[in-house]
Amino acid sequence: MSSIIGILIALLAVGLGMVLKGASLTALVNPAAYLIIFGGTLAAVMIAFPFSELKKFPMVLRIALFEPKSPSKSERISSLIACAEIAKKEGILALEDMAVSITDPFYKNGLEMIIDGHDIDFIEEVLLDEVAALDKRHKTGALIFSQAGTYAPTLGVLGAVIGLIASLGNLNNVDKLGHSISAAFIATLLGIFTGYVLWHPIANKLKRLSKQEQEFKFLTIEGLLAIYQGVSPSALEKKLTVYLAPKERKKIQKKIEEKVHEKTA
């Protein structure tokens, strides 16, 4: 949602800036400039990437604009600590009921491999390979937008050149000449705006979201491997809370203390 608000603020800022500078907003009504920038950017991206990657564009754009709710690290840590407590008291096989209730495929797969008794190195390798594959997919999605951000400003220059060539035919008419030159630079405006206010920021947001998801998965891997190795719940808590901000750490500690009081009461 923040991306949509940011885009609206950018449009408002540019529009208001044009008015304050004395430029007419009607100058933005230039179909040729929109065709050169958006059509040219689309063509350049299609040349650079195969259809198998481009077909994911709408989904990736939706993720960037409507940022999905990220899983809570504190909830995952609490779940891992609960698994550690069960494994410590009842053994690894007792985690089967917990695995059934888990909806996250990555977490579920890791827990099932532990229950099945796979070698710890194999479990770690499988989970890390999955994170690496995720990273590769996300980089491709972000690269499409970053490349679009690189092409768009250059196409803006191309649009300006085309407009100036057209304006040379109006040298004998001062009114038309001024209008033609103004229209020529609309393409440059659109190219710079889309490149540096839309495509590059969206690419950076996708990279940030990818980094957050990978960090969440690394937390899960570390917790699962610790459970497999028989690390105590209290030690696991100390191990995993390093991923949290100080305020969130206090919340987890408070929940654990409340559970201890309930058991001793």
Give a short overview.
The chain has 265 residues and is mainly alpha-helical. The protein is 81% helix and 0% strand.
Task: Kindly list the characteristics that best describe this protein.
mainly alpha, 265 residues, 11 helices
General description of the model:
There is one protein chain. By secondary structure, the protein is mainly alpha-helical. The chain is built from eleven helices and no strands. It has helices at 2-20, 31-48, 51-54, 57-65, 73-90, 96-101, 105-115, 120-167, 174-228, 233-240, 246-264. Helix 2 packs antiparallel against helix 8, helix 4 (57-65) crosses helix 9 and helix 5 (73-90) runs antiparallel to helix 10 (233-240). The mean pLDDT is 87.
What class would the helix/strand composition place it in? Answer: mainly alpha
Question: What proportion of the residues is helical, as a percent range?
Answer: over 70%
Largest sheet: none
Strand portion? under 5%
Unreliable stretches: none
Distance between the termini: 46 Å
- Oligomeric state of this protein: single chain
Average pLDDT: 87
Succession of helices and strands? HHHHHHHHHHH
**How many whole angstroms does the radius of gyration measure?**
27 Å
Got a strand count? 0
Number of helices: 11
